[in-house]
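Record pair follows.
FIRST:
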Amino acid sequence: MTQPTDIRGEHLHTALPLAASGVPVLPLRAGKVPFGNCRHCTDNACGGRPNMKTPGPCTCPHPCHGWAAATTDPDIVRSGAWHSAWERATAVAYHPGGADLTVVDLDDADAITWARTTLPATRTVPTTRGEHWIYRGAMRSANAVRPGVDIKSAMSYARWLGPGSGRITALPDAVRALAVKQRTAVRPTAVTVPAPTGGGECRHRTPVYLERGIAMAEQRITEARTAVHATVYRTFLAVLSTHGRCGCLTETHIARLFTAARAKGESPRHCTDAWTNARTRLGL
């Protein structure tokens, strides 16, 4: 009967020194994913935080908002609001971008071989299937920049698997270029679906609310490891259910969602079908 407490103590023992050293931490539940938002913050109803560039929760004391829950405040980490999360947690994660770090996640032996022959040496951390290469400096996150390679930095999280070995070196241009190449490769796909019509102005708080919602939707798609088709559809449905009737969505917003889906391997047709099906279900 003492196992949950022991596990919670182990995760706290790991998380607290990290937070004290300036590394924003958060608990992960089964499946290596963050805890869902509390009922007050479901679907970002609370409006989230003032901006998405720094770690930390909104005014809600619970570990809400995925990667954005990561914090360096030890009082929050050991607070009663996080108590049940630590009891159910299976791992500790951190927000690399919030610590001015970038993690190159190498998922298999081929990816590791590529990194060793292409990228400058830096600190490495063994993972279940490969390695994390950690560089000093933050950048935008991007998945599947090449076979078996993800980049985790801003607006993302990585599991804490130990300090690793080797000296951390500066983020090289070769890693930054991977994200640029991915964005260029996906961009030519044209968005063929129309934006919903309406008043043209978001009735939900401020334009920041819309921007935050789109950013979180992109992140939800980007972090999908399985059931990508279903994740894309559910994400489109969530965005449209919130903003589909007020007319604030533009083709630029839709293009961002389609780009995230394309980066996960979705075809233009799948993107269009998922968007159309979501609109049909909502009667838009």
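SECOND:
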Amino acid sequence: MTGSRGVALDDLVLPSADLGVHTGLAGFGDAWLTGRSEGRLRYAEADGFLYVSAVVPPSVRYAEAVRALYAELFALTRRMGYPTICRLWHYIGHINGTTADGLETYRDFCVGRALAFEEVSTAMPPASAVGSAHEGIGLFLLATRSGGLTAIENPLQVPAYRYPRDHGPKPPSFARAGYLRHASGGTLFLSGTASIVGHETACPGDLDGQLATTFANVEAVVHERNLARHGVAAGFGLADFDRVTAYVRHAADLAAVESACRAAFGAGTAVRLHRADLCRADLLVEVEGVIR
């Protein structure tokens, strides 16, 4: 497993490649190459994992198209024998814009995703959803043939799928993290994590405050006490992350976020940054990562 996102070989461009500025890793890039496709789904198989990429074309509304695409994704993973969805990434054009119905694009997306999960019995996987310079919605999925995924929540936050209607007609459908048990050990996938306490944004307009709250949320998710609550006999700190990605709303904040991430996670963690809009207009930074 060499990357955190998938890209098909033909003409599909990884949406995050055009999010903005990257700093900190020479030659950074993720590429999962494949010539295989089924309808609008493009995919690759390697080492017991399935990587799938797809795009929802630009539209004036997205809920139904997202629901339909998720149904195709679920059908493909079942048919090919990859029952465990480990991780999802979404890159949403005009994420804080509005649809033809006056609903924020992200909230419209959440309606379609929630409807799709209501139709299946699969557990909520970890996920991220950030803005993209591309139009439409890019979706990337990682699933596995063997091993079990334990969904992990954050004791400092309301589970996203239980958010009140203040945050939209349907809540976001994801777990705060997922711990994958497999033959060679375990991998923890951290969802996009930001400055949210309970279900409300903390420290709006305050980058330092949002960074501190975000790091506290990450620590709470991966701490031994929290993992034990979910039946996982492991425990981690920030320095245990192999790699983290920070999405930063304002380009002027990239250097400060990079410095804060390197100080918080330490020299052993690969840090990369993208300029991207986020799922709430008052969020300034979001962090995701992997612990192997």
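COMMENT: The radius of gyration is 18 Å.
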